[in-house]
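Notes from the pairing session

We agreed to fold both candidates in a single pass and log them together. This is the raw record for the first candidate, unedited. Please don't reformat it; downstream parsing expects exactly this layout.

Candidate A
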Amino acid sequence: MEKHQQAIRQRKKRERDQRINGILSAAKKVFFSKGYLKTTMDEIAFEAEISKPTIYQYFKTKDELYSALMLPFLEEFSAQFEKIEKKLKAGRYSSGKALVADFFKAFLKSYDMAPDSLRVANTFFQQKDLINELTPDARSVISNQGRYDFELARQVLETAMSKGLIRNMDTYALSDIVWGLFVGITQVTDMKSTRRDQPDKYLRSTLHEAEKLITDAIILK
């Protein structure tokens, strides 16, 4: 009997996950096509081939749905940098080169897990007025996660400087430079791609060249 109930629970979870993924996929398509402000829940429901009340069973507002698309990359990015910070504090980096290499690996792993999540986040942060259109709760969730990611990156850089792995610099400026490289390169390769679902094949080779430039510029040992 217990096995039967467990099988039912697993089936329901699979169905729920499939429904959520279908809604997110539809929302992503409509958001990319029309932008956040012009997108309606009716259009997302139509694209997902479900009723609008069904969407509200999983996402209470358009803001919550938009946040669900944006947050996976930001959360994975912070998880990756938390690992780097832990490794750094434990003294497991023998060179700044290895540390910089892990920066780029962390970004790529986050990107590979949720490439469209990064695209949604980029669109959001490029439109300063957009955050004011969100509900206070959605605005707080997104702002807090973004702030945490930037603060974590600066903490990692400060620790690396204190350990003599990289040059002493303004950590605010350096974190913005590194983040700007990540974001800028993905945007450029996206523009060069003929289809959104076929990321530019030169993304990794370009990031590799960027990694060498940053390494040469900031490492001490």
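Candidate B (folded immediately after A)
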Amino acid sequence: MTVMEKTGTDLQVDLPVKNPSKVSFFTQFIDLISSVRFGIIVLILVTLGCLIGMLIMQENVQGFERYYAELTPSQKMVYGTLDLFDIYHSWYFNTLLFILSLNIVLSSIDRFPKTWTFVSKPKLDASVKWLKRQRRSAELEFSGEKEAVTKRIENAAKASGWKKTIVTEKKGKTFVFAQSGVWNRLGAYPVHIGLLTIIAGAFLTTQMGQTGQMVLTPGQTANKMSETVFDLDRVKEVTKVLPFEVYCSDIQQKLIKNDESLSAMNTIDWMTRITIKDETGTHDAVVQMNKPLDYRGYRFFQSSFVPIGRARSITIRATPANGGTAQDITIPRDGTANLADGTLIKFKEFRGNFSLAQEDPNEDTSNYPNPAAILQVAPPNSQAQTAYAFGEKMKGIPISEKAVAGYTFQLLNFEKVGDQHILSIQNDPGATVVYVGFIILCVTLVAVFFFSHQRVWAAIEEVADNKFIVTLGGNTNRNQSAFDERFKLFTKNLSIHK
């Protein structure tokens, strides 16, 4: 069975029509998964999966436990059964990504030979009838020698922006073909490469990426991060060892109002100073709220803090018990200072809500209801003794007026800071791959949509001695208005120099 098809050169050719019953199932399957329509459907499903992942909180997101507790039993059952709490690691989402990648690869392989033929073997001639049917066409009369007319058309084409011209002869007619931006026909393939690169990076992230949190206390070293994993109503803590150690040298919190609490609403910035130790040596760094740290593929973010009121430094007043001039000194956390007589004072501990009982580690003292500093006071050649420095509110209680090593102490001021900082750590092996993919995608999309492949033909037909009819025609794959302006310039240049 055959069917008549009209080609670009107005020739009638007989093309065989495939009998569906004779096409193998494998061929039909390949044709299906490489079709553009099928690829769009899969892309819509992937987008829908991403949308669900945004609307339904995922298991590895902070606050999931509270979110899960607020769901109804039916929601828990449906979401859990369909893996909607961890959709990016579900088998069906990864299968969709694989099918989408396969569709892109197969469609590229299927269409590339035709596209390459179109690029490498351009259509150099065209019938007059076909040229007149183009959106932009014109007919001009010329006199003179054929070579001169041909050269004039070539020069006009080049002056109009079509730098590459080809002259051919066929059936007694001369054809001038010119084009620009032929590479635009291949633009879909770099776009496909960009998409595949993004998908590959996303797959690396979901399969090999690691996230966790590290609690850092000044003066201590950590080399593990922990992640709370929710398996529906079951919770477990997963600990992962890092390939380096992190020593916390200092934590600091910059407040908007120093006389208020450590709340996030009153905070400008959190700063954690660390020293990373590995086989390459030591590396000092600072992790801030808007300045994460990248090291060996791991990214450190400020996550939260432990709301137990501490002091990064204190300013105290030491007053001699037997009379004399009081001395004001500032001592950093875990630091020491000397009085004029050589007495050594060590800043041992700070409490936001002081009591003689053991401190409750679960109490939120970020409002500092009853601040006090615990000191170690060591006169020259004497043993250290414990002393307390209270603020204005408690300076009159008996323990605050008790002399230690000949001095009474008062807490004048202190720099507020939490007990610990909690850093989020993310190891994302696919991040760089995704960034490269987006760069490729953006550049190629700009190239594809802001430029076009433009083609023009001139059919030169001799109607009398040194008399010629020149039929012009052309087309473009996009940006028609720009092509129209260039074609008008082309015909204008020819009309002026006829």
